[in-house]
Structures are given as structure tokens and as C-alpha cells.
Amino acid sequence: MVVDRPVRERGPSGRVRVDALECIAWMAQARRRLLSYDDGDVVEVEGVLQRRFWRSGSAPASRTEIVARVVRRSP
């Protein structure tokens, strides 16, 4: 999922800055819907925000993702 930031938060170059959040789904219906959307689609996602930690080589690593329970196209 990519979320546009407000205009006042544009970078020095004037480009729109975005936040990219990875969505995962354990339920088949939510997974199929996530995979069916295209760039530019506006969607609603219900679920939980999860941060996972692990070791990558000798350094700690983490990832924040949305565990989607319900996914639908926004009206």
C-alpha cells in the first residue's frame, strides 16, 4: 500500500513523498483482493499493524506490515 503525504510534506525537489506499507493476508479472500488491485486504486484495509524483528547476518532487522483481515475498494 502506498500513501501520499500532504502537499506541505513534499521533498525539496517538489516531488510528492509517499509512505509504502507492505500488506500481508492469511485469509484467502483478503489475499485475492490485495493481489487484484492496480496502482492508483483507492482501497480500505482493516487489520493490525505488526512489526517483526529478526537477525540478518550479524545485524538486527525489522519490518512493519499490515496484516489485512478485510480489504475492499473505497467508494
Describe this structure in words.
The structure is a single chain. With 75 residues, this protein is mainly β. The chain has a domain at 22-73. 12% of the residues lie in helices and 51% in strands. It contains one helix and five strands; from the N terminus they run E-E-E-H-E-E. It has one helix at residues 28-36; strands at 2-4, 18-20, 22-24, 43-56, 59-73. The strands form two sheets. Strands 3-5-4 form a three-stranded mixed sheet. A two-stranded antiparallel ribbon has the order 1-2. The longest helix is centred in the middle third of the chain and has 9 residues, at 28-36. The relative contact order is 0.26.
- What count of helical segments does DSSP give? 1
The secondary-structure class comes to mainly beta
Low-confidence stretches: none
Q: How many strands appear in the DSSP assignment?
A: 5
Question: Which value, in Å, is the CA radius of gyration?
Answer: 15 Å
What is the fold's blueprint, element by element?
Blueprint: E1 2-4, E2 18-20, E3 22-24, H1 28-36, E4 43-56, E5 59-73
Parallel strand pairs: 3-5
Antiparallel strand pairs: 1-2, 4-5
